[in-house]
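Quick one, T. Sequence first:
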Amino acid sequence: MRKAHHVAALAALLTAAPLAAQQTGSQTTAESEQADALPVPGSHRYFFIPTGRTMPAGTVEAGAYQLVAPYIGYALHDRLMVAAGTPVIPDALGRYWYVAPKVGLLKGPRWNAAVGGLILADLGADPFAGGDPLHAQSTAWGVVTWGGSAGGVTLGAATNAGGPFGVPRDWLILSGAELRVRGEDRGVEPDVVRLIYEGYLSAHPERMLHGLHLLGIRWRAGRIAFEVAMPIYVEPNRRIEAGSIPLIHASVIW
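Structure tokens:
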């Protein structure tokens, strides 16, 4: 029964988000420009998957996943962001540093597009024991987002650049949706609740639903955002497995 509730909530969110995005497009140009000038916590991503939006120049974001994987990000330009982080307890999660750049290609009131990547460096190898002191893995992605503050949908793709001569080896379809169910983003101290979804789907048409889905909620209070999401895994045989441990994320911008 619990799995059925997750699937029903996911279907409702994916149905309502495009409608909310369509309604958002009817706002005036002046209202859109005013909204774009203010940083909105979480607007540039869902839980992990990025949206096509970027933060205003000079915005700083600090956050943490599961409370033990902190990061800090900075918007160097209205269309250029970069984030970096590492676990607080390296021996528990691995000695990793990551750098995540993001470049906005299209910035508008309804349509936004961006490309970026994730460079993950493993610093855990011991060079005196014959190990590689720096083993890096890279991932590139591109997404397009349609919608505004009321709701939106995102579609894109990601790939690892680990093939010969950097040729992509595997592709992953990225999808996301958000729907505001309470509050307004305007005002000095907005109190906003959104439903969020993101999915990592197979690029093979016969296994399109196969992959990891995250369904959760985002609460925003002023410059602070807090998200809780539950993982749902769809196996190749269409069997659905719901996770028992929630994923949490908290962030603050200034």
